[in-house]
Design a protein that fits this description.
Number of helices: 4
Structural class: alpha/beta
Low-confidence stretches: none
Helix content: 25-40%
Number of strands: 5
Order of helices and strands: HEEEHEHEH
Mean pLDDT: 86
């Protein structure tokens, strides 16, 4: 919405162009932001010196065959034995890493029940792998 001002004799009064002023202001604002020192928040932590590394967790390969058969480190196990293995693994410190390797033809339901069963027993270190990993 522009406004034209006229002088007493009918001439149009010149308006001030404020665009360069806004540009200069924005450049100054950017320069101010760039030159401000970065605020760093330091968190002081006392780290142990020369602490021995934690022993690596044992790795267990849990395979699920195309028909739903489960193999714990290459040995076929029934559901009750698998429950006992899960309970034993949950009690160990550190928990073993359980690598679940499912056949590509196995039904999703079998793998989902296996993972839910492991979670129900308190197994927290569990991951999924491929068939190439198991061989």
């Amino acid at each position: 919405m522009a406004m034209n001002l006229k002088t007493l004799n009918g001439d149009v009064a010149p308006d001030m162009n404020t665009t360069p002023l806004i540009d200069v202001m924005l450049v100054l604002l950017v320069m101010l932001i760039v030159t401000l020192p970065i605020q760093t928040h330091a968190v002081k932590i006392d780290l142990p010196i020369n602490a021995p590394p934690a022993p690596p967790a044992p790795i267990v390969t849990l395979e699920v065959d195309f028909d739903g058969t489960t193999l714990w480190d290459g040995r076929i196990v029934d559901p009750k034995t698998l429950d006992a293995y899960f309970a034993d693994a949950a009690r160990q410190n550190p928990q073993p890493e359980i690598h679940v390797v499912a056949n590509r033809l196995v039904k999703y339901d079998a793998v989902a029940k296996l993972l839910a069963n492991a979670q129900r027993h308190g197994v927290s270190r569990i991951g999924l792998g491929t068939e190439e990993y198991a061989q």
